[in-house]
């Protein structure tokens, strides 16, 4: 079925020739071939001087012509409505993946990006690594300074992480106090080095709030993509690594 959202030439409706039945035309194959070269649409079946939309010109009465014109107008209107609807659907999809207040995508958007990156990595046979950052003292900030301070802390953390990654990397919210980063073309070792630098930037910096400078405490874990991974297993693997690190720090 043709896609009516794509613009296509519409044949001009010719006036009916009431004497067409009385006219005899002798075919000249060579002349017709040259006409097809001069007018490509003729060769493609879009234009035939003896027919209008498959209807012999002799049968196109003024009423038929008016009906066909109305149909074409309705066709163009439907095509414009479809184009507008597609644009609105795209807008809603983008909106559904934007975080409510953080300048990054939400968990749904991050899940989609992970799925896409997994497929690309498998086809290109490259290594990507997912890193989960947990902001450990958000609740302390929330209790002492209020909800606004806690939200501002997450916004600042997202901006620091975003500034520290490459254009090909992706950052998003995992919900709550967790942020996720997809490091493209990154083996486990190089990803660990970059994750440590990002964590250091988060903890050594501070953001202003109500005349004070507030700092963050973080923990992070990572998972390098493996064959057969899904977005869920990648997230779970990074979370398990994060918990293992926190447990080791608590015991040590």
List keywords for this structure.
252 residues; single chain; four-stranded antiparallel sheet; two-stranded antiparallel sheet; alpha+beta; Alpha-Beta Plaits
Give a quick precis of the structure.
The protein has 252 residues and is of the alpha+beta class. The chain is built from 8 helices and 8 strands.
What number of structural domains do the residues give?
2
Helix fraction by DSSP (H/I, runs of at least 4) = 40-55%
CATH homologous group name of the largest domain: Reverse transcriptase/Diguanylate cyclase domain
- The CATH architecture classification of the largest domain is 2-Layer Sandwich
Strand content: 5-15%
Can you walk through the features of this model?
The protein has 252 residues and is α+β, with helices and mostly antiparallel strands. The protein folds into two domains: 20-96, no CATH class; 107-251, Reverse transcriptase/Diguanylate cyclase domain (Alpha-Beta Plaits, 2-Layer Sandwich). Helices cover 52% and strands 14% of the residues. It has eight helices and eight strands. The protein has helices at residues 29-38, 40-43, 62-96, 107-124, 138-145, 147-164, 188-204, 231-251, and strands at 51-52, 55-56, 129-135, 170-175, 178-183, 207-209, 212-214, 218-224. The strands form three sheets. A four-stranded antiparallel beta sheet has the order 4-5-3-8, with helices on both faces. It has a two-stranded antiparallel sheet with strand order 1-2. Strand 6 (207-209) and strand 7 (212-214) form a beta hairpin. Helix 5 (138-145) runs antiparallel to helix 6. The chain is elongated, with a radius of gyration of 32 Å. It starts with 28 loop residues before the first helix and ends with a helix. Mean pLDDT is 81; it is low at 4-26 and 39-47.
